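Morning!

As promised:
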Amino acid sequence: MKLQQNSKLTKNQGLVYDALSKADGPLSAYTILDGLRDHGIRAPLQVYRALDKLLEFGMVHRLESLNSFVVCRHPDCETQKTMVFAICESCENVLELADDGLVGQLATLADARGFSVKTTTIEMSGLCSDCSAVQP
Amino acid sequence: MKLQQNSKLTKNQGLVYDALSKADGPLSAYTILDGLRDHGIRAPLQVYRALDKLLEFGMVHRLESLNSFVVCRHPDCETQKTMVFAICESCENVLELADDGLVGQLATLADARGFSVKTTTIEMSGLCSDCSAVQP
DNA sequence: TGAATTGCGTTACTCTATAACATATGTAAT
DNA sequence: ATTACATATGTTATAGAGTAACGCAATTCA
């Protein structure tokens, strides 16, 4: 839960983080917005600004391929610069896998071409175990 | 260049492919649209439909983290299900790296959790060799 | 030559994200 | 406390990315 950081969140940051925490999958900024209208959130920017901070804190990840966001379910994300996401295209659940070895190999592959890596995005789409049992 | 497929392209598909080929980096659909207004392309859908086909043919890749598109510079992309992109955040040039080993490892990592992978997106952001020489 | 598929053109619309500007709130030093 | 500074907030308007739905044209291909 990363409570040490959670306690320092501002009102809007806390609202957005809680909304993402309660969701069982990724949420778009506008879905979050709709869910928080009763709490005084009225404009997209209020959500995006909170998300920017939460991303900076490492408490939330952005899924580029879905234009949406998930809370970090990984225990020590600060030390992990890169996550691997497995996104089920049937139920939209997201597995968050960490693998530093893989990230190191990617960096090596890039270094061989003189490219210095800052951030890495790895997103896999497919079927989670539950859904692949149903839809073979 | 993948001429065998190029020769089969329809008018709009050819226009979009040529526009991407001439660019030295990724283009958004709307940038392509603006560049093709003189050629009879007037609506976003005309571009998006062409892009869909080109993606299907494996002649174009989509960069999720930039919402934009590049031509495939890799010789035999049909046999490569997954590309690794290194995107320079300074000059916007894109290196296209192929590594089946890495993709296999990712699939193994996912399989261990019962997830069956269909597509994989790997995008690295950083500085290319030219730009990292200038901005240390 | 007709039927089926694929592509084209257009209008309107939804979803995603940011710019610009004014106000408020917290924080730290004097 | 009071000033000064950084950070967060609220609001309006707008830009950028992508799709739905409709009708028509062109191309296969039987």
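Residues 10-13, 40, 42-43, 45-46, 49-50, 53, 67 of chain B lie near DNA strand C (CB under 10 Å from a C1').

Hope this helps with the figure draft.
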